[in-house]
Each structure stands twice: as structure tokens, then as C-alpha cells.
Amino acid sequence: MTEILYGVFVGPFRDMAGSPAFLVEVLLGGVATGLMYSLVALGFVLIFKASGVFNFAQGVMVLFAALTLVGLMERGVPVAVALVITMAVMVGLAFLIERVVLRPLVNQEAIILFMATIGLNFFLEGFGEMVWGANVKKLDVGIPDRSFIVAGVQINQLEMSAAATAAVLVAILAVFFQRTRIGRALRAVADDHEAALSIGIPLKTIWLIVWSVAGLVAIVAGIMWGAKSGVQFSLSLVALKALPVLILGGFTSVPGAIVGGLIVGVGEKLGEVYWGPLVGGAIENWFAYVIALVFLLFRPQGLFGEKIIERV
Amino acid sequence: MTAEAAGPLLEVEGVSVRFGALLALSGVSLNVQRGEILAIIGPNGAGKTTLLNVISGFYHPYEGRILFEGRDRTRLSPPDVAELGVARTFQNVALFKGMSVLDNLMTGRLLKMGGHFLLDAIWWGPARRQELANRAFVERVIDFLEIQSIRKTPAGKLPYGLQKRVELGRALAAEPKLLLLDEPMAGMNVEEKEDMSRFILDVNGEFGTTIALIEHDMGVVMDISDRVAVLDYGRKIADGPPEHVRKDAAVLDAYLGAGHD
């Protein structure tokens, strides 16, 4: 019994204090992963905020973007050109989704729109595989997967580049949606469609913008995850990790998605490394969901979400 | 000024609106003159809100035309109508509840902030200057409506009367040519009604804003409006100065039921 208590409450912290450099390594790894979760979660938040739609297809959009990019590169298109084409494809996709899926379903119940995104999910999955094939593809973005040592801390170049890219993108998006006119328009649409229309905000344009941005975010997420573990179907499952992030951060909060991603990323890495051996490892796979469950019990609106008050 | 500037600001010509079998408006014609306060009254279900929704583009008539500043504007969408300079409030207060009062009013300035949405984000400097200039205007509206103290309060947390005032503020922030108010005083106590009446008169007097409003409180209507139009069962049954409408037989019928002597 004391052994278990020691293993849970004392041992891990003694290990952390014993080797600070290693702790920093673990934290950095956690932040890197966390930022990537944030990025996927952001895609969800943007669409949810602007249209009240929970976009089930966000994960597949990540896969689809990565597939398109790799597919183009495999056919000999230079990286830069392939990237531009992929961006155009994702914006085009946003345009089509607004036209074909959202517009005909305007004013429908949230659950119907959700179902529509499930349909979109399967369509994109099948379409992506039809066009680009179902094999695991290697994505080489030109950043070597090697490590160097700074002040005794081992740093992986690929991971850090990905983290830096994610951080910059997240920062840009946060400023974009919190501080600019369009951010205000977006929040207005999220709050009240009719009122937003009456002050001259065109809903269609807003939807096109958020789906495009979600598409662009998907490209970055796709590149980062793809470079790490290859472009394959499991990429779309990254979205599943974004769910606990959303529950933590709140579905409607951009800062929430960022902080939530970091908490999940760092938390699961720390758990895996320091507490993992206690239960035979693999904490990383379920840790996020346990946090999410705890949040659902005690703070269902998440850290930054708007509190839901139903008046009876 | 061109010739068109002399005509009515808004002309509704023989507008009919149908919801399935229900004829919500039938052949309604109505003008709104520049600079006036027009009250639209009528019993419940007379089609007043429908008329406002048609003017602001939420519904489109199956018959008839709407002209704004002499041009046919019948089939515009709500954002396009807003762009023409028509601002409105809603019967059930449609504020952005999660946003502060200040932000709510700033959204009213969206159309006044020129330039492109996306360029805003990329080219930071001009967007910032513009934001400040518009903020200055919004502060004037805040002073005008005497809501300085609730500037930072989330709109959803305010009492109903104040929410109505903030909603008016958002409409004013757009510097509209035509202001449409759907029951601006519904659910208010006497004091709040007096405040609101004063604001409406001041908006009209100081800025020359043309106002069309729907209201149930007859006392208020007779006090503040230059002209009153009466709807009943989707038809216009009277239109004229308040003192005439008050004595109109058709209006008395509509309100008190036929058969009074």
C-alpha cells in the first residue's frame, strides 16, 4: 500500500527533481504534441462558433489535406507549388461545403447539420482514397528528423519546427478572431443569426471564411502529423484527441482550444513518463479522456466556454 | 440634392406576403417620408412585424414592390438592406448576449468600417486606426443613450429595459437613414418608456433620422409620432396624423370590435 502511495505521490516528483533536463525534455515534447492538438481543436472551434455546427469531418479534412499534398508531391510537383494547390483545394472544398451542404440546410436543427458533417466525413474519406490511394505515404517536408542538445536537453528538430509553426499559426488565428472586425462579426454570427444579418453581416461569407480557415488549419495539422507518423487513415483519428481538448477548453473558445491542447499534451506526456510504469504504460492513450470526463462532471462548459444557463 | 432626394425615403407599393394559406399582408402601400416618425399600429396579428421584416429583407413579398430612395429594393437580402442604411431592432431583443455592450455597439459599425475583411487581418495599421475612429463614434452613442456605466457588461446580463436600449444603440451606431423599431417599449415600466420616448425623439430631432416604429402603447404613439398607419388583418385601414387616426371609425372598429355606436 505504502509502495503504491509512494509511487503515485512521491516517486514521480523525486524523479522530476532528480533530472530537470529530462523533465524539460518531457515538457517540451508535451507542448509540441499539445500545440498540434490545439490546432486540430481550433478547426472545430472556428466552425462551431460561427455556425453552431459540430464538424465531425474535421479529422478527415486533416487527412484529406495531407493526402492531397503528398499525392501532388509524389507526382513530382515541387513542395511550394503543391502547398499552394492544396490550399486552393481546401478553400474550394469550403466553398463547395457551404454551397452543397450548409446552404440547403440553413435553419435546420443542430443534429441535422451534425449528421450532414458525418456524411461529409465518409465522403471525403472515400474520395481522398479514391484519388490518392490508401497506402501509407511518407511526407518529407525537408526538415530532418534529428536531435541536437541544448544545455543538456535533447531537442528534436522536426518536433520543434512543428511546434513553432503551430504556435505562430495559433497566435495569428487568436489575434485574427479576437481583435479584428471579422472576429467581431464571427462572434456576432455565433450569437444570433438574425441580428447579425440585420446589421449587415452576410452569413454565407462568414461560413465560407471559417470553413476555409478550418481547411487551412487542417493542412498545417496534416503536414505536422503526417511528417511525424506518415500520411495514412489513422491521421483522421487525431480528431478524436481534439474532443477532450474541446471539452477542456470549451467548444466556443479560441484561447480554450489552445490551453486545452497544451494541458492534454503536457498532461499525457507527464503521465506516460512518470506515472506510466505504475500501470504498465500506455497512459497517453486514455489520459485525455479521463480529464475530459472529470471536466464533464464538474465544469461542463470547459475552462473558457460560456456557461449554459437554461431558464425555465 | 437630386430629384430623388425629394421623394419619400421608403415606398411600399401593394405588398402582399403569404405564409402558406395565411395572407399576412395583402396589398399594403405605405410611404415613409424623410425625417418623420411613423408609427405602425394595429391589433395583434395585424401584420406589423411582417411588414417590418419585408422592409428589412427577411421576407420577400410575392406581390408588390419596395422602393428605397426611389430605387426598387424588393428582393434584397437583410445584409444588403442594412448596407443601404436601414437599421432595425427586434421585438424580442436580438442582442449578442455573450458580448459586452461596447462590442455589441461596435458590431453596428461593421458596415461603416470599409475595406476588406481579410485585408484587415493582414494589413494591421489601417484596420487599427479605423477601429479607433469607429470606437469614438460608438462612445458618442453610449453617451447619448446614457449607458456609460454598463459599457463592459455582457449584454445578456442586463435587465430587459436596458437590453432594449443597447439594441437601439447598436442600430444607431450604424448611422442609419431609416431606423425600424419593433415594439421598442414592450415590457417596459412607465419610467423606462419615458426614457425610450425621449431617446427616439432626440434621435429624430438631433440627427434627423427617419424612424418607423411599431408600438402598442397608444399614449406613446400619439405623443411621439408625426404620422400613424394602422394595419388590421394584413390591410392598411388608416394612415394620417395621430389626431385624425384616433377618431377614425375603421380604427375604432379594429380596436374595439364592430358594433360600437
Descriptive tags:
heterodimer, A: 312 residues, mainly alpha, two-stranded antiparallel sheet, 12 helices, 72% helix, globular, B: 261 residues, alpha/beta, Rossmann fold, six-stranded mixed sheet, four-stranded antiparallel sheet, 10 helices, 39% helix, 23% strand
Write up what this structure looks like.
With 312 residues, chain A is mainly alpha-helical. Chain A has a domain at 21-45 and 52-239. Chain A is 72% helix and 3% strand. Chain A has a two-stranded antiparallel ribbon with strand order 1-2. Chain A is globular. With 261 residues, chain B is an alpha/beta fold. Chain B has a domain at 1-78 and 216-261: Rossmann fold, CATH 3.40.50.300. Chain B is built from ten helices and ten strands. Chain B has helices at 48-55, 78-84, 101-107, 117-122, 124-145, 160-173, 190-207, 218-224, 242-247, 249-256; strands spanning 10-19, 22-32, 37-41, 63-68, 71-72, 86-88, 178-182, 210-214, 227-232, 235-240. In chain B, the strands form two sheets. Chain B has a six-stranded mixed β-sheet with strand order 6-7-8-3-9-10, sandwiched between helices. The longest helix of chain B has 22 residues, at 124-145. The N and C termini of chain B lie far apart (50 Å). The model of chain B has no long low-confidence stretch (mean pLDDT 85). The A-B interface holds A 175-176, 180-182, 184-185, 187-188, 190-192, 194-203, 205, 209, 306 and B 56, 58, 77-79, 82-83, 87-88, 90, 94-99, 103, 106-108, 110-111, 113, 117-118, 120-121, 127, 131, 170-171, 174.
Structure at a glance:
The complex is a heterodimer of chains A (312) and B (261). Chain A has helices at residues 2-18, 20-51, 58-74, 79-102, 110-132, 157-179, 181-191, 193-198, 203-229, 238-249, 254-275, 287-298, and strands spanning 147-150, 153-156.
List strands and helices in order, with pairings.
The complex is a heterodimer of chains A (312) and B (261).
Chain A: H1 2-18, H2 20-51, H3 58-74, H4 79-102, H5 110-132, E1 147-150, E2 153-156, H6 157-179, H7 181-191, H8 193-198, H9 203-229, H10 238-249, H11 254-275, H12 287-298
Antiparallel strand pairs in A: 1-2
Chain B: E1 10-19, E2 22-32, E3 37-41, H1 48-55, E4 63-68, E5 71-72, H2 78-84, E6 86-88, H3 101-107, H4 117-122, H5 124-145, H6 160-173, E7 178-182, H7 190-207, E8 210-214, H8 218-224, E9 227-232, E10 235-240, H9 242-247, H10 249-256
Parallel strand pairs in B: 3-8, 3-9, 6-7, 7-8
Antiparallel strand pairs in B: 1-2, 1-4, 4-5, 9-10
Helix pairs in contact in B: 3-6, 5-6
